[in-house]
UniProtKB/TrEMBL annotation:
Stated name of the protein: Translation initiation factor IF-3
GO terms for MF: translation initiation factor activity
The organism of origin for this protein: Streptomyces roseoverticillatus
Stored Pfam families: IF3_C, IF3_N
Region (Disordered) residue spans: 185-219
Location of the protein in the cell: Cytoplasm
Ranges of residues in domain Translation initiation factor 3 N-terminal: 22-91
Predominant place of localization: cytoplasm
Family (UniProt): Belongs to the IF-3 family.
InterPro entries (UniProt xref): T_IF-3_C_sf, T_IF-3_N_sf, Translation_initiation_fac_3, Translation_initiation_fac_3_C, Translation_initiation_fac_3_N
Functional note: IF-3 binds to the 30S ribosomal subunit and shifts the equilibrium between 70S ribosomes and their 50S and 30S subunits in favor of the free subunits, thus enhancing the availability of 30S subunits on which protein synthesis initiation begins.
Subunit structure: Monomer.
């Protein structure tokens, strides 16, 4: 019965809000008050806390509803919400997602193709991504697994400054697989990429300003 009543109450739009109670929405006789700078004011009647909020031209915000009495703080709630939203947005922007790229090679790969694919692996590792290297064997090549192993070993040595062997070469049916992990964390790679982009932008801006300064004035 109680569960049905609760469900009906929620359906009617009475679900509990995640927002803290502020100002006249706070319904308790007294609160433990924290000042604007974090100083402890102490336990005061709710009316006194609201009066202080008006004097400071701030909001009274309930920050610990389960405490006895609840803890409230004097703050600019609008500014607090804005700053919190900006911090959350920046955190999402800088969030690092581990990505596994894949590169496929043949045991008897052409030197030019090898250099091209190695270049891709280098780029992935610089970006802070893992790389799954797959050697594909066909026909009689399956009887020569050492060709694939030597190729994977060569590739690992060629990129050892940027990555390391996270998963050693292993046979998987007609394929041989190895996983390379980057030395650099994804967050570090993203930060360096942003710095490089800003530096290039500043360099272009500086060059444009210098060109404009060198243009002769019209007679």
């Amino acid at each position: 019965m109680a569960a049905r009543q609760a469900a009906a109450w929620c359906y009617r739009g009475g679900s509990i809000s995640a927002e803290p109670r502020i100002n006249d929405r706070i319904r308790v006789p007294e609160v433990r008050l924290v000042g604007p700078s974090g100083e402890q004011v102490g336990i005061v009647p709710l009316a006194k806390a609201l009066e202080l909020a008006q004097e400071y031209d701030l909001d009274l915000v309930e920050v610990a509803a389960n405490a006895r009495p609840p803890v409230c703080k004097l703050m600019d709630y609008g500014k607090f919400k804005y700053e919190s939203a900006m911090k959350a947005r920046e955190a999402r922007k800088n969030q690092a997602h581990t990505v596994i790229k894949e590169m496929k090679l043949r045991p008897k790969i052409d030197p030019h193709d090898y250099d091209t694919k190695k270049g891709h692996v280098v780029r992935f590792l610089k970006q802070g991504d893992k790389v799954k290297i797959t050697i594909m064997f066909r026909g009689r090549e399956q009887s020569r697994p050492e060709l694939g192993y030597r190729l994977l070993q060569r590739l690992a040595e060629d990129v050892q400054d940027l990555g390391f062997v996270e998963s050693n070469p292993k046979q998987d049916g007609r394929n041989m697989i190895m996983v390379l992990g980057p030395h650099k964390k994804k967050t570090e790679a993203m930060a360096e990429a942003r710095e490089a982009q800003a530096a290039r932008k500043a360099e272009r801006t500086g060059a444009s300003s210098a060109d404009a300064a060198e243009e002769p004035a019209e007679a």
